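Lay summary

Proteins are chains of building blocks that fold into shapes. Our project writes down both the chain and a compact code for its shape. Here are two examples, one after the other.
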Amino acid sequence: MSSFDRRTVLSGALAAGVGASAAAAETPIAPMIHHVFFWLKNPGSKPDRDALIAGLNTLRGIEVIQQLHIGVPASTEKRDVVDNSYDVSELMFFKSVADQKLYQDHPLHLKFVKDCSHLWAKVVVYDSIAL
């Protein structure tokens, strides 16, 4: 194969790869995101935090949840735009708003709310959908 032919093949393959990457970047992995922040009634209580985290982990049994991340505030730089006043957060990914509604009505979610709502003083939810 001549160097021209190789360059043509390689540049074509590179262009195809870039095009595929761009298309993949436009296709959201999880179009529906549900992010919840919890403030404990007893801030700083490790037993209450652990109980809430254990409750959140039971939600992993809900089949429409694509991914579930449970976390606590990170020790990042203090800045005016950072709110780390919460105690626990959970971040869920769903394929659709309909799946998020199935999650809301799921018996495991209802049980979590019943069993754990006594632990929190405040809950803030941010739901977003991919563009």
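And here is the second example, written the same way.
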Amino acid sequence: MEVINAIGRRKAAVARIYLSEGKGKITINKRELENYFPAATLQYVVKQPLDLLGVAGNYDIKVNLDGGGVKGQAEALRLAIARALVKINADSKPALRAKGFLTRDPRVVERKKPGRPKARKRFQFSKR
């Protein structure tokens, strides 16, 4: 099997993955999954699409992760893995879609407006 690549985004995080046949090893920026995401909840989020289809031990995944925070990166990686699994087997798409793993979360931080302290907050109004 050749290498399948996919991309996932969430907030400011971008995950580029290269999925190939293997023993289930996930390498993120040349580090192990357990070292990159020490929190068990984030490891769980990353592995959700693999566990849903029961193929956790079948593929090695090499990941390039950039930008954002840890939660955004984990969810970007989940989306990329789900997209790669659909490229391998299109029959798995309905199951992944039902769980929401193929939906790109469009919510991003609103830009700061000029003359304001934050995006929507205003400085205190003074009548005199």
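What can we say about the second shape? The first strand starts at residue 4 and ends at 10.
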